[in-house]
Amino acid sequence: MKEFIIKANKAVTNGEINLKDLPGSSGRLDLLCRCVNSAFFLSHDMRRDTIFYSVNYGSPNPPVALKFVGSELKRVSPDERSIALFIKKALEKDASELWKESTSGIYSSKREFRDIILEKKNEGKRIFYLHLNGKPLEDFEFKDDEDFLFVLGDHIGIGDKDEEFLEELGAEKISLSPLELHADHCIILVHNILDRLK
């Protein structure tokens, strides 16, 4: 199982989303939509072995975590507007500590970025932090029965305190390129490398 989590520093935390202006009106929700596309969509198929989390820290009610489960997703199209519409439906629900399903395979909860990562660590998942100065992903060894969580930052990053938290947690810092890449491109590259290693 491959899981991805992104800290969305400015992404809105309610359903007041202007679908005609995702970058300007919703705290770079366009970035999240592209990440969902990259995490799940293949040509004429979807990745069922993937889960994607976004933890939104924008106004008015941060944080709100969103969870997309590939094996359960239905009716979602790969375009940004369609994905944003499903995110809007999830954010219109009142978030609580329990995951609430808004549509098939899409959930929301009142959870912190660190709490989800810690939960995954306690489940025995191998934690990777995607960072420009990390070790190349191709240099790592993977076992067939391993489950992974890949931690991503948005256009702002995750911040020094969360980086310290990951270091204390023993997260492995990995790099995909000598250049700084968009988060959605990183997801595609991770999938591609793991596909080839299979």
Automatic annotation (TrEMBL):
One of its GO terms (cellular component) is cytoplasm. InterPro entries: Alpha/beta_knot_MTases, TrmY, tRNA_m1G_MTases_N. S-adenosyl-L-methionine binds at L130, G153, L176, S177, P178, L179, E180, L181, C186. One of its GO terms (molecular function) is tRNA methyltransferase activity. Its main location: cytoplasm. It is found in: Cytoplasm. Gene3D superfamilies: 3.40.1280.10. Homodimer. NCBIfam families: PRK02135.1. Specifically catalyzes the N1-methylation of pseudouridine at position 54 (Psi54) in tRNAs. This is tRNA (pseudouridine(54)-N(1))-methyltransferase. It comes from Methanococcus maripaludis (Methanococcus deltae). The lineage of its organism: Archaea, Methanobacteriati, Methanobacteriota, Methanomada group, Methanococci. The gene is trmY.
